[in-house]
Amino acid sequence: MYVCRGCLRNLAGAAASAIAPRTLGPLRATTVAVSGLRSYSRDADSIRAALETAPSEPRSKSETKPPNNDKDGANDEELGYDHVDSKGGALAKQRYEKKLEKGIQKHLSMMPDPFHIAQYISTALSKGKFDEALMMTRMASRSKKVEVSWNHLIDYLLKKHRLHAAIKLYNEMKKRAQVPNAKTYTIIFRGCAISPHPKLAVSEATRIYNFMLKYGSLKPNTIHMNAVLDVCSRAGDLESLFTILATANTSMRSPDAHTYTIVLNALRHDAERTRQKNQGLIDEEIRREIQINIQRARALWIDVITNWRHARLVLDEHLVVAMGRMLTMGESHDNEGVLDLLDQAMKIPRLDKPDVKLPPMPPAKSSEDATTDINPTSPSAPSSPPPRTPPTLSNAPLYAKPSQKTLSLALTALTNLRKTSHASKYWDYLTRLRNILPDADNYYCYLRALAVGHNSEKVAALISSFPRDFLGPDTFRRGFSTCINDNLNPNTFTHACRIFDVMISTQRYPDPMAMRLFLRSARLNTKHFYNPFSASGARKDELAALKLHGRQLTAAVDRMWEPFRILASSLSYPTDATRSPEELLARQRNDMQEVMATARGMLAAIDRALTTEGMLDNNSEVKLWKARRVVLQRAVERWIAKLYPQGRGAGGSDKEDTRENVLGEEEVGVKSPPPQQNRAVAQHAW
């Protein structure tokens, strides 16, 4: 509010030359009691609008910039201050700059060294003070070389996925006579690799890289080439990738192991995308596309081996595993090449060949030998340490060192080749002789290989040796599935019981699906019971087989009884608090259906044992299983009443569903025992 006539007259006269008279609104007379004088005031909003639209005032870039409608970020992103009030316009920006400049000048007066300036910039960016860091870098660039500070700013913008702003800052750096160093280009290329716009990142990275090759005073090196290759690999642009790879030479841009690893992984990801998208192709065409990438990888591996044998490249596990994973996507001869690859690059022998034995374990050093080696008073101890010999080509570690990735690769190749009987040899060789500590992926790959080979005995032993943190529902499901498929083994049910005991002892609540698979293994693994009979004793042998089959079924249900009771009781005591019974039922619906399906499977097994003549011949056992069947039947009916209070609807009623899936008492000819006569049996049953 202007209350002085002289100030108001001067303001109107100053604005008259720059502002058209029609832009100024008429004066508005107001009576303000200030020293008893009449004062005039102008609407503050109209004055501010007139000053901002004056021709003499420079308009902000945000007002003249067209709207950015490009989804891929093709338009240039404005590089300005983040904490400026957009409603204030140019005046607010000027005030904000002046306020920052005063504080920055004080800081710069106490930091004459560019190293301390870079440290301050890094600390400010870690706190989110980008405006202060940007202005300090601009002001320090007038008299000092602060390339490191510019690198921090560019890296900050790239981590925020502001690619265009970072490129604009890079151009501003050059205009302010700050020469970009090798670290600057590395930051830009690596920032392009994590950009959410891969096509735009590839175009920017290749443009800067080609500029460095042709016109730049700083030529790109191997690190820059690898960073640009990583950008092309993440974008899936194989054409640009091989174009950049063609710029490699034998001096500054000599390809190393990381270079070939990036290219091989790009070929593998391209093959996986071809397999997943399927693009209307038939299987033969998909295999043909994958074989093209495999042939490219084989041609690249020839260059790798050539450089390795001429001591121009050091093999590492990442490179060998990248090539091996590419081969596992091919046919059987490609998977055979994985084992040859491990033999060639890591000196892992082909243990799947005939007459190949596992190398002997190294002898353990005794305690006496250990004390002799470290005892300085021993007569055999040397008086001085032996001289160190420099590493030469004969004793240098030429081969790659295997680890968990190599173990998973070997097991995957053996699984694809269905040479699962040799998986144990590779497992023992790599874990015992090469001292590889298996991780979760190694255990699962080994379990998958044994499951494909239907080796229930080794699967049970492996699950028993699993670390507890690696055990889960999928582990037990795969183990029981292996027991189901191993039908010809008479000891399969014993192995399934061993797996079941591990599940009960390690899991808080058993998995319902795993319990059903265990029960299925007891029902299906019966081929060793029904062997061909002789003509003389056919009836006697058949009754014995039925009795053994019934004993196996009842043993499985009896083993499941107590764990199933604990699992069913968990539905009555939920761990999470709920606001209503409806919400509790909605949360427990899936779990209740799984438990109910397990109960129906147990009912079916009991009905099979009760209705088949010859399976149960003991009256006490028949009485016990009839009582247990009643308990299960009533539990299923209670769960059905909770899940479907209005009935099944158009599909039928709950009683029909129960009778359809579980043999009812009337259908199987079993009557429920009177509750008062068999109360003790029922209490023992549940």
TrEMBL record:
<dbReference type="InterPro" id="IPR011990">
    <property type="entry name" value="TPR-like_helical_dom_sf"/>
</dbReference>
<dbReference type="InterPro" id="IPR051222">
    <property type="entry name" value="PPR/CCM1_RNA-binding"/>
</dbReference>
<dbReference type="Pfam" id="PF13041">
    <property type="entry name" value="PPR_2"/>
</dbReference>
<feature type="compositionally biased region" description="Basic and acidic residues">
    <location>
        <begin position="653"/>
        <end position="662"/>
    </location>
</feature>
<feature type="compositionally biased region" description="Basic and acidic residues">
    <location>
        <begin position="58"/>
        <end position="86"/>
    </location>
</feature>
<feature type="region of interest" description="Disordered">
    <location>
        <begin position="352"/>
        <end position="399"/>
    </location>
</feature>
<dbReference type="InterPro" id="IPR002885">
    <property type="entry name" value="PPR_rpt"/>
</dbReference>
<protein>
    <recommendedName>
        <fullName>Pentatricopeptide repeat protein</fullName>
    </recommendedName>
</protein>
<keyword id="KW-0677">Repeat</keyword>
<feature type="region of interest" description="Disordered">
    <location>
        <begin position="647"/>
        <end position="686"/>
    </location>
</feature>
<feature type="region of interest" description="Disordered">
    <location>
        <begin position="51"/>
        <end position="92"/>
    </location>
</feature>
<feature type="repeat" description="PPR">
    <location>
        <begin position="146"/>
        <end position="180"/>
    </location>
</feature>
